[in-house]
Amino acid sequence: MTAPFSYSTSYVLDKSHYIETYDASAPSVSSKKAYTIAVLLGLAGLMLLMLTPIDPFVAWFIVALGGLEAFSVRYKKAWWLGRQLISKAANTELTLTVNEEGISSESIHIKSTLLWADITKIEATGSGWLLHHKGGKNYLSARALSEEANAFVVAKAEMINPGEK
């Protein structure tokens, strides 16, 4: 009988980790679709400004919202990365444990466990895995895992995603 699998490692939640997480987990949106709301807000504000007797402050506010939306689309990654780097979790050490029960992460700020039974899908990315569950999705970086731990996650993915390659 083989011993139950367990792997534990520690790493720092640094800028490179957050960049990898964003690149692997952020949904890609086409440029035209992403800027649609910004353009519509800008046009609505200009129409209110030119075609109605409404207070110009309101119209300019809507135009400014359109500009802010365009800015947020253009700098989405930088904005997200900046928020992560000023959070209390930035540059702290995280202990990651992968075992038969699930995946646990523990730092001075958080202790959480994602059970294998709660994971509905494991999606391979170029640098790790996206773990889908009812509460959303989590990213697991392959660079933090040993070869044995990577093989264990692949085996779990085959069990959770039957028939997918």
Task: Specify the CATH homologous superfamily of the largest domain.
Answer: Pleckstrin-homology domain (PH domain)/Phosphotyrosine-binding domain (PTB)
- The CATH topology of the largest domain comes to PH-domain like
Regions with little confidence, pLDDT below 50 for 5+ residues: none
The biggest sheet, with number of strands, parallel, antiparallel or mixed sense and barrel status, is: 4 strands, antiparallel
Structure summary, number of beta strands: 7
Write down the secondary-structure element order: EHHHHEEEEEEH
Task: Give me the number of helical elements.
Answer: 5
Oligomer classification? single chain
Structural class: alpha+beta
Distance between the termini: 29 Å
What is the helical fraction, as a range of percent?
A: 40-55%
Q: Which CATH class of the largest domain applies here?
A: Mainly Beta
Shape: elongated
Average pLDDT, all residues: 92
In the sheet with the most strands, the strands line up as 1-2-3-4
Q: What fraction of residues sit in β-strands? A: 25-35%
**CATH level-two architecture of the largest domain:** Roll
* Rg, nearest Å: 22 Å
What does this structure look like?
This protein is an alpha+beta fold and 165 residues long. It has 2 domains: 79 residues, Pleckstrin-homology domain (PH domain)/Phosphotyrosine-binding domain (PTB) (PH-domain like, Roll); 55 residues. The protein has 5 helices and 7 strands. The strands form 2 sheets. It has a 4-stranded antiparallel β-sheet with strand order 1-2-3-4, with no helix packed on it. A 3-stranded antiparallel β-sheet has the order 5-6-7. A hairpin with a 4-residue loop joins β3 and β4. The two termini are 29 Å apart. InterPro entries: YcxB-like_C. It holds the Pfam family YcxB. This is YcxB-like C-terminal domain-containing protein. Keywords: Membrane, Transmembrane, Transmembrane helix.
